[in-house]
Amino acid sequence: MNEISWLAVPTKDNAHEGVRKLWGKAEANLGFVPNVFRAQALNGEQFLAWWNYFNLLVNKPGHLSNVEREMLAVVVSGLNRCVYCAVSHGAALREYGMEAGKADKVAVNWRHAALSGREAALCAFAEKLTLHPAGMAQSDLTPLRDAGLDDAQILEAVQVIGMFNMTNRVSSALGFVPNAEYHSQGR
Length: 187
Fold this sequence. Notes:
Keywords: Oxidoreductase, Peroxidase. This is Peroxidase-related enzyme. It contains nine helices and no strands. The chain has two domains: about 15-60, Single alpha-helices involved in coiled-coils or other helix-helix interfaces, CATH 1.20.5.810; about 65-175, AhpD-like. It has helices spanning about 15-30, 35-40, 45-60, 65-80, 85-95, 100-110, 115-130, 140-145, 150-175. Helix content is about 60%, strand content about 0%.
């Protein structure tokens, strides 16, 4: 075991070329390489395929705001008790403008945060889809629509929630450790 994962972690010398390029971009943009980029790089092609979809859902302009997408990530990660994702996306949520105290409440129990009706509807939907996916019904979309979300926004919310449920399981199953830098970001 190494300090960021329970599996082997490639080095710059033996990582896939595309992964090394991504590490370089992250270092240039963030000032560090996220541990998740290193920990998943063992299977380079699979990691890059995951990254392309993740990046599209979370980092590119979409139908939801950056705050909404990161809020969903934090709610799902908190419910799944995924330390890596709760910490790293809690940092992103603060960086995108949610006040630190409110973001911390979202991470632990979103019901204690002073959320708008739209934010609360998204969080409630994320909670049900994460904890009770077999119980989802068409009527679960009504509070989202009542809060002003259209079908494209609802679909994106479902995709983000699904992505984080999958990513949480990978991170938790392999013991991914968040970078120390995340703890102070946005504070």
